[in-house]
Amino acid sequence: MTVLQTLKRRRSVPRFEPDGLLLTRELIEEMIAESCLVPSDFNLQPWRFIVVRDRERKEILYDCAYRQEKVRQASAVVIVCGDSKGDARAEEEVASSVRDGAMTREAADHLVASVCRSYQGNELARFTLAVREPAFAAMALMLLATERGIGSSPIGRFDDEVLRKAFAIPDRYFPVLLVALGLQALDMPVPARGNRLPPSVVVFHEGMGDAEP
Ligand SMILES: Cc1cc2nc3c(=O)[nH]c(=O)nc-3n(C[C@H](O)[C@H](O)[C@H](O)COP(=O)(O)O)c2cc1C
Fold first, then answer.
1. Where exactly are the structural domains of the chain?
2. How far is ligand 1, taken at its centre, from the CA of residue 156, in Å?
3. Would you state the pLDDT for residue 191?
């Protein structure tokens, strides 16, 4: 499947066959590892994933997600989180490159200084890092699922506070999105895709000067 074919085939599944697929821990880890091929600023990789496969844990997640049936029907749900201190691992990131001889110590120091300049004391930049990169990974996960014939649905409506408590998510991490995975219900076809805004509305060339304020 080409990227375009996969993009066209991916849809948000309206309903899953309850526990319709056996998604093993190993398969999900493999798909997550592949998802992590997406880019991240300075290769900081500010994403973390909580895999929920256990029926009872899914029931808890269902409550966190305002009782959206998809959550309990899905074979697995991945809680995609962002690290609000993603810049903290800059030194760790360069250390392996220095060790492998892929980077000089001087270049590594320069890079770490650049990370500090970009993120230290800049909460907006840190927040953006914690949301943007994990969103790339979540998208990749849905495309990888599509490629394997696994249905998926992004779920953004959940109670952040309740979810954090139920899944022991430290303050440092943001739950960005749930990605539900499973077998699309056989008796409920996905409705026609909603129209996408055309380029005449969403594309601006060389600046946004003529956009509505
Ligand atoms: C950030 C985000 C949050 C979403 N949250 C939910 C959700 O909570 N529940 C749901 O059923 N669908 C959710 N969706 C799915 C959208 O409704 C769906 O992507 C949109 O209608 C376009 O349909 P398509 O994904 O099939 O192209 C979410 C999608 C995104 C990107």
1. 15-87+122-186
2. 7
3. 87
